[in-house]
Write a structure and sequence with these properties.
The protein is an alpha+beta fold. It contains 16 helices and 13 strands.
Length: 498
């Protein structure tokens, strides 16, 4: 067998993962993805192994609820054929491997820097010298936006090639932050430091990333979390989904100059995040999720309070959505704007909302369930048209679905399980955790050494997959529609710039 089959959050000895030749590695993994739309790459990365480079590729099979993991060892002085030439969804993974380790590809179609990490292989490649795609034409012009943005938006540069008002091409350049967060996981040793790193990978996804870290760390430590821990994580994930989706509906209304929707949805977000502060002392749920620990037990009194919050929230949320989706001027901005076809979403490996709004049923709550989602029998919300309207409708439907799940969970609040003992991570292990954050599929991978120390910590935010979907969505749209297309995805700069 050329690969190892894992379940989500199942640790295995690194030695159990087969090492195969590069050619077999390429054929195996591209063939797996090409074989069925139910498979996609959840992570593909390199790790220094002496003077060689060890590559790991992780392919998820959503119908069989497993992950296939394979590896190979390559010499960085040798030029290799690229996965990307066969399957575009591997494009960013290979760009990162090239940028970090200098691995050369003979046929990669877009081999440009990705993140500009401080310890990148070629320090002469600088963010100021990024090689933008250009077209030599007297009829076309370029428009640059960023990297400095107003308000809370993080640094990123958008370079448009336009024919008048029509966008022909958008290239998105990121990599301004140089946070080195994956390296910090190897430097920091205390569990609280690691947990703090995890919840700050992407500020709007503190629950999603901290849950992925908690699951991964617990699996490395052979710790079986009690029900109250899983209950708190499931609850927090769905509250985070409600809060961010509602805030995004406010932002979309702002972009179409619909002041009532902007104000009402913005107001409705507030009681949700305020409840998180009542629960754990932080509106973004920072400090709530910790491996093997329930610092803020969820009580029946909190359940009553949350039911009160939801019962007040839902009628106003529903009424405001009815107003929004019955307004011709709003629909004219949403419908057939920023379309990503099912074929394009599949080709680029989109995940989460970006995938589901284009007809792909890709949701780890159903395909690789974690926490208490298996009990909820989660059925993903899937839309077919791939436009702004689909992405905005999805937010409405997912909020209402999350409220239903919360009411189900709150009928049986578990008794706190008390203090737990968490062992040190096991030696020479490989572990992978998938969590469905509000934006989509989060993947954390860890390798441990002979003493159980972290040798590698690999993070993938859903934005890593989906920035290309945004670039595809604006083609043949007017440049004035870019803000609403951008906000309908609401991707993370920090989640990309690790």
């Amino acid at each position: 067998m050329h690969y190892l089959t894992l379940k989500n959050n199942q640790p295995v000895p690194v030695s159990d993962i087969p090492e195969i030749s590069y050619n077999a590695f390429l054929v195996l993994n591209t063939g797996m993805v090409a074989e069925t739309p139910d498979r996609h790459c959840v992570n593909y990365f390199g790790y220094r192994n002496g003077d060689k480079l060890k590559l790991f590729c992780c392919i998820a099979d959503d119908s069989d609820h497993v992950i296939f993991v394979s590896s190979c060892i390559v010499d960085t002085d040798t030029v290799h054929a690229s996965f990307t030439a066969k399957m575009l969804c591997f494009e960013k993974f290979e760009r990162e491997i090239h940028e970090n380790f200098g691995l050369q590809y003979s046929d990669h179609p877009w081999l440009k820097p990705l993140r500009y990490a401080h310890d990148r292989y070629d320090l002469n490649a600088t963010v100021a010298g990024y090689p933008f795609y250009s077209i030599d034409s007297e009829e076309l012009h370029e428009v640059g936006v960023g990297p400095i943005h107003a308000g809370i938006i993080e640094p990123g540069h958008f370079r448009f090639i336009c024919n008048g008002e029509q966008i022909l091409h958008l290239e998105i350049q990121l990599g301004y932050q140089h946070r080195g967060i994956e390296k910090l996981f190897l430097v920091k040793k205390h569990i609280n430091q690691l947990s703090t790193l995890a919840e700050n990978i992407a500020g709007d996804t503190a629950t999603g990333h901290s849950t992925a870290f908690a699951h991964l760390w617990e699996s490395l430590c052979s710790f079986e979390a009690a029900r109250d821990l899983h209950f708190a994580r499931t609850l927090a994930l769905e509250l985070e989904r409600i809060a961010i989706h509602t805030g995004d509906l406010s932002a979309v209304c702002t972009d179409i100059a619909y002041q009532l929707g902007s104000s009402v949805f913005g107001r409705l977000r507030t009681p949700i995040v305020n409840f998180m502060q009542e629960w754990c002392g932080n509106r973004l749920s920072k400090g709530l999720i910790r491996p093997g620990l329930n610092k803020f037990p969820f009580t029946p009194a909190l359940a009553d309070r949350l039911i009160e919050v939801l019962n007040t929230f839902e009628p106003d949320f529903t009424e405001m959505n009815n107003e929004l989706f019955n307004m011709p001027s709003a629909l004219s901005r949403f419908e057939r704007t920023g379309v990503v076809s099912t074929e394009d979403a599949s080709t680029i490996g989109a995940v989460g909302m970006a995938a589901r709004s284009s007809g792909l049923k890709r949701d780890t709550r159903a395909s690789h369930p974690h926490s208490l989602y298996a009990e909820l029998n989660h059925e993903p919300v899937v839309k077919r048209h791939g436009d702004v309207y689909s992405r905005v409708q999805m937010r409405k439907k997912e909020v209402l679905q999350s409220i239903k799940y919360l009411h189900t969970l709150l009928t049986d609040v578990p008794v706190p399980s008390g203090p737990h003992t968490l062992n040190n991570p096991g030696a020479d292990l490989f572990a992978l955790s998938l969590v469905e954050g509000w934006r989509g599929e989060i993947c954390h991978v860890a390798l441990t050494g002979s003493e159980g120390e972290l040798l590698l910590y690999k993070i993938k935010d859903p934005s890593f997959h989906n920035w290309l979907a945004l670039a595809m969505s604006v083609r043949n749209n007017e440049i004035s529609d870019f803000p609403i297309c951008n906000k309908s995805f609401n991707l993370s700069y920090s989640g990309h710039d690790l």
